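R.M. (postdoc): so does anyone remember the format we settled on? I'll just put the structure tokens first.
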């Protein structure tokens, strides 16, 4: 699991699995945002599985899938809302972390 720190309270990473959740919790994260649509790859876990196990680990979760076609206004607004509401620090993930970083930067312009 490769996690890239964007700010003190927000990081991004590639696809996580339920096996990663104890390490995510141990690293101090309080929330997880999934930006990867279910079914994008055969070997990725469904969000529902990650959500169930994350909640059992004490993590708050949100599902804001971002498709390869680009960021939708509704996705950016939902992400900005999640950033305002969720306990920090937050880890957002997708396949590589790039979409999560892009939506984070887009949402920041809505929060200023």
């Amino acid at each position: 699991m490769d996690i890239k720190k964007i700010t003190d309270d927000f990081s991004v990473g590639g696809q996580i699995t339920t096996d990663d959740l104890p390490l995510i919790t141990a690293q101090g994260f309080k929330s997880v945002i999934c930006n990867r649509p279910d079914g994008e790859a055969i070997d990725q876990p469904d969000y529902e599985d990650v959500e169930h196990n994350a909640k059992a680990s004490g993590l708050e979760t949100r599902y804001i899938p971002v498709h390869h076609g680009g960021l939708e206004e509704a996705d950016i607004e939902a992400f900005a809302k999640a950033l305002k509401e969720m306990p920090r620090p937050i880890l957002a993930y997708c396949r590589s972390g790039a979409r999560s970083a892009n939506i984070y930067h887009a949402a920041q312009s809505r929060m200023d």
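R.M.: ...and that's the designed sequence above, right after the tokens. Also worth knowing: Residues 81 and 107 are 9 Å apart (CA to CA). Residues 98-111 form the longest helix (14 residues).
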